[in-house]
Amino acid sequence: MKADIGIIGGSGLYSMATGLEEIEVNTEYGKPSNNIAVGKLGGRTVAFLPRHGAKHVLPPHKVPYKANIAALKSLGVSRIIATSTVGSLASEYKPGDMVFFDQFVNATYGRDDTFFHSYPVAHVSPAEPYCPELRSIAAKAAEKLKINHHKSGTVVVINGPRFSTKAESRIFSKQGIHTINMTQYPEAVLAREQELCYLGIGIVTDYDAGLEGRSDIEPVSMSEINRMFAANLGRVKTLIAEITSNIPQKRGCKCAEAMANAMIK
After folding, report:
1. Of 102, 113, 208, 216, which residue is the catalytic one?
2. Which of 75, 181, 220, 254 is the most exposed place for a label (fewest CB within 10 A)?
3. What tens digit of pLDDT does each residue of 133-146 get?
4. To 5 degrees, how large is the angle CA 32–CA 37–CA 192?
5. DSSP string, 196-218
6. What is the 3-state secondary structure (H, E, C) of 143-190?
7. Could you report the per-residue pLDDT of 202-253, keeping only the tens digit for each?
8. 208 belongs to the catalytic site
9. What domains sit in the chain, N to C, each tagged with a CATH number?
10. 206 classed as catalytic
11. Catalytic entry in 4, 97, 206, 216
């Protein structure tokens, strides 16, 4: 079974598609987070993969990122739409907003973050880690649906599973970083190594450890993240459906050439 577009997120997204069939996929990097559900959405064949497993049993640092990307590619996927909850580090990025990332900062450690551990040796450039074509389509979709959004934004990826201290959050904020998350790395760069288009959609749920000078804003908690995500799930599904229906058959970006000049010869 083949699919055009991969969707990585929670299992709550499955209800968007029709004719779903769950399939088991094995890769040389092990099994992905869960079986993959393939169905129809917006006239396209899509493959759904819950990043943390169907019952959210995998913490961020234990997600099998390489197997997930490899599994989707093995099904024929050339584009990935990946949703994740993020904390805000800037007052203008408000809870409930959607962010279409254009940059990431990696603050994780110990994660297997490349497909190239031996010959051939490769050095991929993630200078522009997110697909510009998909970001443009996403921004137009959000405008059409009147969803509060940010056409760009930098996300710092921490290892987790703990949240940040106030001091850590303050450092990231002063560096001009907009949002914080635990799963965008190495997922985005692994997709690039496989020459897949990757769209990262951040759903702002909180203000991380709080904002400077705002005693009325409490540090992030899982109860608040769950509440905000549930409140925005419907909008996320509508947004993804709109994005999917506007993705052209032929790629108009350079993501498919990401490894062209990366190999050591």
Report:
1. 208
2. 254
3. 999 999 999 999 99
4. 50
5. -EEEEEEEEEE-TT--TT-TTSP
6. HHCCCCEECCCEEEEECCCCCCCHHHHHHHHHCCCCEEECCHHHHHHH
7. 999 988 876 665 666 777 788 878 787 788 888 999 999 999 999 999 999 9
8. yes
9. 5-257 (3.40.50.1580)
10. yes
11. 206
